[in-house]
Amino acid sequence: MIGSVVEKYEVIQKIGEGGMATVYRGRHLTLGRDVAIKVLHPHLSASERNRQRFAREARAIEHLDHDNILKIFDYSGTDADDCYIVTEFVDGLTLQNLLNERVRFPSEVVSLIGIRLAKALHYAHELGIIHRDLKLENVMLRRDGELKLMDFGIARFLDEINLTITGALVGSPAYMSPEQAMEKVLDSRSDLFSLGTLLYHLVTGQLPFSGANPSIVLRNVIEGNRPGVQELAPDISAPMADLIEQLMQTKPEDRPLNALEVSDRLRAGLAEIGLDAESPSWSVSRWLQSPNDYHDQLHALLKAELLNRGKERLAQNDHLGALRMFNRLLSIDEQNEEVLELLRSLHSMPRSGQRRARLIPIGIGALTLTALTSVLVWPDDPTEATASASELEERAEDVNDQGMTNPEVVDDSPPLVVAIERTVTAQPAPNEPPTTSAAVPIVAAPALPSIPRPAERPESATVLVTVPGSWGDIYIDGELKGRTGSVRSIAVGAGTHRLEIRNDYALPHEQSFTVAPGENKVIEVTDLQRKPVLVLMRNAPSADCTVAFDGVTRGTIGTLNEVVQVREPDRSHNLSITCPDGVQFNRTVAPTIPGRDVTIDLSSP
Q: Residue 368: phi, psi to the nearest 5?
């Protein structure tokens, strides 16, 4: 189709292809406006009936006019041979592309993205339109940070076509809501479930539901079989974790009321740490341009705000709120002595008019709180500490409010152990292997005789990590274990661990893995990706010069901050720069070492 004209649009180049359509970049013949032309594959537009369905869905969504929804300019008529939609052209990347590069997103960046997505969904839902296929591939971030939600109506069209022809379910199984997986009637709450899945994917770097085939994935979706979000991302904010867990409830009535509520809660979560969702200093655009600087400044903010706000909650006798703050702070700064000292002191804070409850706030690995006079009691069965966040808060409040007024009734009962938030990692003692993480518990119990602390869990499992075709330094739970190829099986404790692979020329790889006692696990990392290269354009005659990279316009020198990112450094690329005065520069970016910057001098053509 390249070089042909579709209605009033010239087809310039092919920019993508998926399972249902091919996407071309086009240009309006009279307006000169760049557009995207999505042409459905012939088998989807083969019959007149299908073309009529497609036109009906296009008419239903063409009037959607929202900053965060991809604008539709035109669509094919019922007498056209092909089904196509003409939309605004977005110069940017999908969230899936970005996640492939960055492994996982900071919790606060995910909140900013979630706010815009929720606003777009709420706008559509108010008009009676649901998306049905919300996933990372259908969300684009423009290079200036603006978000665009794509493909409204397409999933419904495909549902009708495929259910009519084959009875097959259409969509992305890992993102489907349980009611969509069971082919029930859908409403806006189905989109909310998919939004929760998308947020989960961004903050953890992993999909919540997995399986060897789509049928197993769908069964896990229907049954809710997935890890808790904080099991994979212990450093995310408590409000974000609570919201994701509620969005992903299997029953629609247990989810938030609407997308507006989701947006409001995300904003409130940011405000809890003093971050303004509209501030340019914390914008998605700034994160896209300078992710390392953004990360450093965010961590500095979190360390200060979480500590101060945790202290405020302590002063208000809101111990649970303080622990939520301190737990997140320890997940990013586990040796913060001020927080550890505050936690040690919590047991000496009795509630007015009540029996003092023993409150032992921390049990981090091998750390022994010898200064405490109370006894730390661990549950024999780890499932005792796996209640939902809301249940944990209710149980903790019940203990605080009621006290232990009948000790004779509960003499034989085990103490109540409430695991707050997520586990944190202990610093191993010298010459000793790392221990598995332990939860930050609140223990409320009557006076009991001293009970010996259980022995540390033995390291009774091993893991072998390989990176076929490449190499990497292996970090398990933050500790360097050696380099692939030079280190064999690594002894670890039974349980869940965090694996990182670091390579000077590749993007960091992170994942969680779980081993059982006695298991010899092999982990093969096959998706290690080369670091991108930054092409620095220096001494340009004007900031208004337009930059095209491999034939695709990226923007002006000024809007790009003189930088173009190359994601395939192992091959040559064409850089073309056209300035307002007609001066043009053509440069070849030769293959180079991943992660190494390349400077292009534009002082002369």
A: -105, 120
